[in-house]
Amino acid sequence: MNIQYWSVPITSLNGQLLGVEIQPQIEIHGCRVIAGDVLKRQLHHEQMSVIRRKEEWFRSNGLLCAVSTPILPTETADYIKHFGLHWLDDVGRRGTTAVELLHGDYEVVRLNRRFSDELIGSVMFPVLLQNIHRCCDKVIVQVQDTNHHQLLKGCGVWAVQGMYKPIRFEHCEKLL
Description:
Blueprint lengths: L1 E10 L5 E12 L2 E3 L3 H17 L1 H6 L3 E4 L6 H10 L3 E5 L7 H5 L4 E4 L1 H7 L4 H10 L4 E5 L6 H6 L4 E3 L5 E2 L8
Parallel strand pairs: 2-4, 5-6, 6-7, 7-8
Antiparallel strand pairs: 1-2, 1-8, 1-9, 2-3
């Protein structure tokens, strides 16, 4: 099994780097595979170790590092609370509700890409963001270009993701 970690930039609407999302890319026998929950659990400790090696760089530059994991082991929960913000990811994914947003204590909310793509041009999108802002100030919208930046600025979106190509995590310093 070959594992490469990639940094997906998260930027402000004016292009300033705010952080990265670390995403593992896994190959088995030369074929890329999608990590299921079992494999993600196995990778969790290695992924946290990779991030710890860059911790000082993230801290000294005031950057975030988002980690997607199906679990939050008790031994890393305190570290994550100390190291970063509490995120609610994939808001608007099919079959989900806003209950988690209403009852959780989240500092950052990231909208599901498909959900954003479907709603971004509609009259409902600004209303949706306004309601999300009642629960959380920092909203990340996944986009592919700058077409909707004016709308996003007007709606108080904190950051975007998907504008810039991912790079290998070991080279994430080059994003500055």
